[in-house]
Specification:
Elements: H1 4-13, E1 15-18, H2 24-43, E2 51-53, E3 61-64, H3 75-81, H4 84-94, E4 98-107, E5 114-115, H5 130-135, E6 140-146, E7 153-155, H6 166-174, E8 184-185, E9 193-196, E10 202-206, E11 213-221, H7 243-248, H8 254-263
Antiparallel strand pairs: 1-9, 2-3, 3-4, 4-11, 5-10, 6-9, 6-11, 7-8, 7-10
């Protein structure tokens, strides 16, 4: 599925792009599912506590969290996580002992410009110890799967494996909406998927309001066999522990959710 150079690029640069990973049939199926979700969220007012709002005000959104919640769940988007062009790639990058982390939608805002600050996930100011960064080179994968042409993600390649430079620190902590040294726009065509390390310096930027529907999923490496269970945080998404949901999962996803329920 992946060549050694692709795996090395993920480790060294913090990202790889898989062109034409999703078929036209996949794209149309996922677009229809997302249209239904957005109608429920934007028109019917469902799922309000799980939406990503522009500027924190509840009048425009740029994303939908927890899309496996029963109020908006679409089986096509559950099955998408098991898509060979997604799960096979994740397994090649970080191994087969996996744990579910998140499944979210990223969409275009409708009323306000979308521009979120430079950050590293888990550290908005970018300050993560070097040892922690190096230990995290292959312990998780985050992905953006584009259903329309998408140039919304900006990254600094290689920044996931080192501490901040003085110039990066100045931008992150003083002017986090301005240009970053060595920034790169990740240009995706519909059907392309970027797989990346969430500790890479990155931001979202779509001032034009261009149409966007992007699958935003993340998977972690599960703890080794014999690790004591730690289900802290599972109650916050109790709907993922429902027998009807667990029973409907594709076989390849069952271990991911078993490990999530066991380790949180």
């Amino acid at each position: 599925m992946l060549t050694p150079p692709e795996i090395n690029a993920f480790v060294e640069n913090g990202y790889i792009i898989r062109k034409n990973a999703l078929s036209t049939t996949d794209i149309e199926s996922y677009q229809s599912a997302i249209d239904r979700i957005l109608y429920k969220c934007r028109v019917e007012g469902l799922h309000a506590d799980h939406l990503r709002y522009i500027d924190g005000e509840r009048d425009d959104i740029w994303g939908v969290n927890n899309i496996f919640h029963p109020s908006i769940r679409e089986l096509a988007l559950v099955d998408a996580l098991a898509h060979p062009q997604i799960l096979d790639v994740i397994e090649a990058l970080i191994g087969k002992r996996l744990r579910y982390h998140l499944c979210t939608l990223l969409v275009n805002s409708e009323q306000k410009p979308y521009h979120i600050r430079w950050h590293r996930d888990t550290a908005a100011d970018g300050e993560i110890p070097l040892e922690q960064l190096l230990n995290g080179l292959r312990n998780h994968v985050q992905l953006n799967g584009a259903l329309y042409d998408d140039e919304t993600l900006y990254i600094v390649p290689g920044s996931h494996r080192r501490e901040l430079t003085d110039a990066e620190r100045k931008v992150l902590q003083e002017t986090p909406m301005t240009e970053m040294p060595n920034q790169l726009a990740v240009k995706l065509k519909a059907g392309d998927i970027v797989f990346y390390n969430s500790r890479i310096i990155h931001k979202g930027y779509n001032l034009t309001g261009a149409k966007r529907q992007t699958l935003h999923y993340a998977v972690l490496v599960a703890p080794p066999e014999g690790t004591p269970p730690n289900d802290k945080g599972v109650e916050s998404q109790a709907w993922l522990n429902e027998p009807n949901f667990l029973g409907s999962l594709p076989p390849r996803l069952k271990p991911l959710f078993d490990n999530w329920l066991k380790y949180g």
